[in-house]
Sequence to fold (237 residues):
Amino acid sequence: MTANQIRQRVLELGTWFHNIDLGGVQTAPNHFLGDYPSCKWHAFQASIPADLTGKSVLDVGCNGGFYSIEMKRRGAARVVSIDSDHDYLEQARFAAQITGVDLDIRKLDVYDVAALREKFDIVLFMGVLYHLRHPLLALDLLQEHAVREMLIFQSLLRGSCTVPTLQENYPFAETAVFNLDGYPVMHFVEHRYAHDPTNWWIPNRACVEAMLRSSGFEIVERPENEVYICRRREHHD
Fold:
């Protein structure tokens, strides 16, 4: 396809959230976050193996396919890209076509990952948690049914960045602990945040880290403010 044909198809596919370079055509050149998600990717890409030869990857909430494409560029043997949004999936299919990568793109909700009947060496869960009405359930399902080795996680964070040291248990009469700066908190959005009605829960840092541990993941690294590299624990409480 010529650059003009690509540009026309990009416009036909609607508003893109992922800015992807398709033969010199930017899909979201005026993104309010800048060159997104490339700007975020550059901050943590060194924490992911440069050679993914033989590895299987699941991209949950793949959107326009930016991260799926990057995984294939690193040699991943197989990348399954899922999303519940038809328009994003069409964008991802087009992006894969133009960039020449082979993606297994499917319409699937995170709550239905067990239907894949497969665990993946690497699971990407980027920018999805806060769009879910049942975020902890999603993490539990990924741990049980999808992640074999590594979870690459990112979430919007708001509130305190402090991570206090907490006891494993407190008596019923204890109330002051809940007012500690940084106590794990998930902010509920009843209507909209950033004009987006799908922004439901926004955790603070301590909360997202506690949720990851609670679902059976060990946090290995935090290479970027919102990004966590996690390893699946075989057994968890």
User: Anything to note?
Assistant: The chain has one domain: 3-232. The two ends are 53 Å apart (CA to CA). The helical segments are 3-12, 38-44, 66-73, 86-99, 135-145, 205-214. The chain is about 25% helix and 25% strand.
